[in-house]
């Protein structure tokens, strides 16, 4: 009987802990200036390959900041910088090919940057982000769909906020014209960004 | 062969060869001097490939390989005048040195602040000028073999695009070689040599600086220029045998370089 009660107590404790640990989105105040945390941020892309698949790639080292002012949304801004050498497509030879003169030409154009010109977010955290994307030495206006994921305190005394931005670009618009018959012109881009309030 | 490979073969070999052949034949019917015909056919063949493979003509070019068309035109104009009026060798060498240095500078220009090294810069100028003088000395199968080897080295260790353009140069030089048979001693002329040197020099240097093309196999290709010299010493006074011996001797370093890079490439399966 004692043994049965003991197991019952352990099960109840586990259930309680599981309930306490359940993941939930924090809906805190998103205002402030946030520095992008590269360990929890990534720029990913998908591009059509040979007309049969879409292969992904990602840039692991993102830096920059974003400012959100709920009272003056016009002053919201985003600035992102991505070193091309942080490219990872899960195959070293392909990384080298993509970073060479056939595509990104990273020796000459070592960084990709984005600077916002307009940020619009509704009360539900959905909106659009417009700005200048500089890639391969070419600067073009690009419009991202934007979604706020959440905002709130972290366990280390800081305050964080995160967003997902998505867009589709044509690589030929940025002067990357090589092998358009084998590797698609359209490239889907997704930026997952987490920032720490400064 | 899939449609993509067929398309690449067309861009690299078929269309450049067809363009070079057409210009060569047109020059013959227009009774243009043979040296000008050579230069024009090489330039036309390469332009066809450049247009289909890269196709960027902005000025100033945004990337190093974008300078190639402008270097071709510059060399074609200056050294066609040389073919017509025969500069003194001192003036020719001075112009070659200036153009070699300027070409190397243009290719290094975008990375001057980030990846510049004076020894590499100076040795690039020396290699470019050396390549040019070797081509100019006497056209031989060595140049065709070096261009072919460069295409293999660039495509497997650096950039497929630069490899394709190198392949186009080899194809065009191959057409020129076949059209000149059975002559065993012929010259590309000053203009043809200048155009070939500017294309090959640009592709090799761009590959080295921007695509990290394997350096040792690239340098091994230059050994092919010793083929004609060795053949001349080994078989004096027999031009036909010399031609074939030079081809065989030149083939050795090119084949070794190609095997090294191909084995390395095949060990990393796509």
Quick take:
Chain A has 198 residues and is mainly β. Helices cover 14% and strands 50% of the residues of chain A.
Plain-language structure description:
The complex is a heterodimer of chains A (198) and B (270). Chain A contains two helices and eleven strands, in the order αββββββαβββββ. Chain A has 198 residues and is mainly beta. Chain A has a single domain, classed as Lipid/polyisoprenoid-binding, YceI-like (Lipocalin). Chain A is globular, with a radius of gyration of 21 Å. The mean pLDDT of chain A is 89. Chain B is an all-alpha fold. Chain B is globular. Chain B contains eleven helices and no strands. Chains A and B meet through helix 2 of A and helix 1, helix 7 and helix 8 of B.
Largest sheet properties of chain B:
none
CATH superfamily of chain A: Lipid/polyisoprenoid-binding, YceI-like
Q: What is the quaternary state of this protein? A: heterodimer
Biggest interface reads:
A-B, 21 and 27 residues
Q: Please estimate the helix content of chain A.
A: 10-25%
CA-based shape of chain A: globular
Say what the CATH topology of chain A is.
Answer: Lipocalin
Radius of gyration of chain B: 18 Å
Round the mean pLDDT of chain B to the nearest integer and report it: 89
* Number of strand elements of chain A: 11
Which sheet architecture does the biggest sheet of chain A show?
8 strands, antiparallel, barrel
| SSE-based structural type of chain A | mainly beta
Rg value of chain A: 21 Å
Number of discrete helical segments of chain B = 11
Shape of chain B: globular
What is the overall number of helices of chain A? 2
Average pLDDT reading of chain A: 89
Helix content of chain B: over 70%
Strand content of chain B: under 5%
CATH architecture label of chain A: Beta Barrel
């Amino acid at each position: 009987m004692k043994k049965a009660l003991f197991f019952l107590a352990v099960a109840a404790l586990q259930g309680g802990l599981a309930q306490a640990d359940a993941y939930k989105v924090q809906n805190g105040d998103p205002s402030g200036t946030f520095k992008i945390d590269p360990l929890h941020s990534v720029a990913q892309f998908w591009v059509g390959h040979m007309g049969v698949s879409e292969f992904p790639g990602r840039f692991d080292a993102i830096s920059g900041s974003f400012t959100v002012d709920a009272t003056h949304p016009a002053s919201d801004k985003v600035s992102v910088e991505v070193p091309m050498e942080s490219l990872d497509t899960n195959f070293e030879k392909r990384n080298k090919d993509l970073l060479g003169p056939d595509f990104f030409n990273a020796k000459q154009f070592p960084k990709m940057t984005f600077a916002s010109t307009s940020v619009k977010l509704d009360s539900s955290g959905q909106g659009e982000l417009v700005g200048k994307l500089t890639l391969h030495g070419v600067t073009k206006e690009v419009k991202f769909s934007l979604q706020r994921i959440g905002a709130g305190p972290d366990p280390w005394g800081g305050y964080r906020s995160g967003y997902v931005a998505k867009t589709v670009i044509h690589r030929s618009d940025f002067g990357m014209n090589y092998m358009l018959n084998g590797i698609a012109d359209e490239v889907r881009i997704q930026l997952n960004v987490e920032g720490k309030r400064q | 062969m899939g449609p993509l490979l067929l398309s690449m073969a067309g861009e690299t070999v078929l269309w450049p060869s067809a363009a070079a052949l057409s210009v060569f034949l047109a020059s013959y019917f227009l009774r243009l001097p043979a040296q000008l015909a050579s230069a024009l056919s090489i330039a036309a063949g390469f332009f066809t490939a450049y247009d289909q493979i890269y196709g960027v003509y902005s000025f100033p070019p945004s990337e190093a390989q974008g300078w190639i068309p402008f270097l071709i035109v510059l060399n074609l104009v200056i050294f066609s005048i040389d073919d017509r009026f025969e500069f003194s060798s001192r003036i020719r060498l001075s112009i070659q040195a200036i153009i070699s240095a300027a070409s190397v500078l243009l290719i290094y220009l975008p990375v001057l602040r980030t990846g510049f090294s004076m020894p590499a810069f100076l040795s690039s100028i020396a290699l470019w000028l050396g390549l040019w003088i070797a081509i100019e000395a006497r056209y031989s199968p060595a140049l065709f073999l070096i261009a072919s080897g460069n295409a293999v080295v660039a495509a497997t260790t650096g950039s497929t695009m630069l490899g394709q353009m190198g392949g186009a140069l080899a194809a065009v030089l191959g057409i020129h070689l076949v059209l000149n048979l059975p002559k065993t001693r012929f010259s590309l002329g000053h203009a043809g040599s200048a155009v070939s040197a500017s294309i090959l020099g640009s592709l090799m240097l761009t590959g080295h600086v921007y695509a990290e093309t394997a350096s040792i196999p690239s340098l091994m290709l230059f050994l092919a220029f010793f083929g004609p010299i060795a053949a001349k010493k080994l078989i004096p006074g027999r031009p036909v045998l010399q031609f074939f011996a030079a081809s065989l001797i030149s083939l050795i370093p090119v084949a070794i370089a190609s095997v090294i890079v191909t084995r390395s490439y095949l060990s990393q399966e796509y």
